[in-house]
Amino acid sequence: MPKKVDHEARRLEIAEALWRIASTRGLDGVSLRDVAAEADISLGRLQHYFRTKDEMLVFALRHINTLADRRIRGRVGAIAARLGQEPPPRAVLRECLVGMLPLDGKSRVGALVGAAYFARAVHDERLRGEAVEGIPRLAELFAGLLRSAGERGELAAGRSLDPYTEAMLLISLVDGLTAYTLLGVQTGEEALERLDAHLERIFAGGGD
Amino acid sequence: MPKKVDHEARRLEIAEALWRIASTRGLDGVSLRDVAAEADISLGRLQHYFRTKDEMLVFALRHINTLADRRIRGRVGAIAARLGQEPPPRAVLRECLVGMLPLDGKSRVGALVGAAYFARAVHDERLRGEAVEGIPRLAELFAGLLRSAGERGELAAGRSLDPYTEAMLLISLVDGLTAYTLLGVQTGEEALERLDAHLERIFAGGGD
User: For residue A78, how many other CB atoms are within 10 A of its CB?
Assistant: First the structure.
């Protein structure tokens, strides 16, 4: 199906133009015309692929999330290869969370597109659907990892929270750490140290 | 100094027009002209008070933060009056954090203006200054409360984190909980329950 492939490839090129704008001047006030210019195509051509800015934004966000997902799976796979077995739940959870922080160029662009999405989605119920579906799914995944860790006796002794609550706290935490890193309140390294301090509290091997 | 008072009053009226726009359709693509129309004044008049959208945004954000601060102090004062003494650090910290969540109309508008600020500030170093100064100051305040709680033996037994790290984790957490509440991923009540679960872990009176 070469036609379908072409269509998808062109949509990706447009999404990449959107990312370039998102990662330099941001998407506030950016029009379809601006994105068409950045992608070096006519407005009419762009509208053949995306009718609205929001449609384009959701496509770009989904694609960025897919790429992030692939990078994270790659890193989890590398740990598995190194260990010669399935990595422990803590390592998988940490790779997922670290992959969500803006620590390199790619994850930074993802976070910037995420920031633009956020600013628009709070006012648009249809756009919010993306977060409303994706976040609980992610929280379920994390809750599952926390449950496995608990079954393996790898959670810190003492009071532990309901896994879904803990998962939503982790996702919220990474979201805030990302925001304050993008705002320059802290460096990426500091964000990572803070995340690790929190994970250490959840997982710390016995003794406390 | 009636002139100065007038000037300030007019700036507040304009800021309130900006909030109304922020809390309904958002600030993406909103021009000075749009805000002037909402404030029912001419563009020239508005520009007498604010030269740019960002100047207006920072003023609106500061004012919202001042109002939030006043509400929080009021609630801490009410607890003090009820107890007949200074409230414990945990209660003060909780009031501050709860006051940052979008649980009612006022804090919701504050969070929406904050979202618009965030989307712009990630691309503008001058705008970022607001967060870069304000957040570490808030983290110091929270770290101080955590230190007092520690001295009074009110922190949970076991491993406790460096107070500044704990403070930045709390601020990040509330930021993320706010985002996911605005996006409709969770209700305000759920955000509050999750925050309380985390606070309980930090403060839980002995036994674990």
Answer: 12
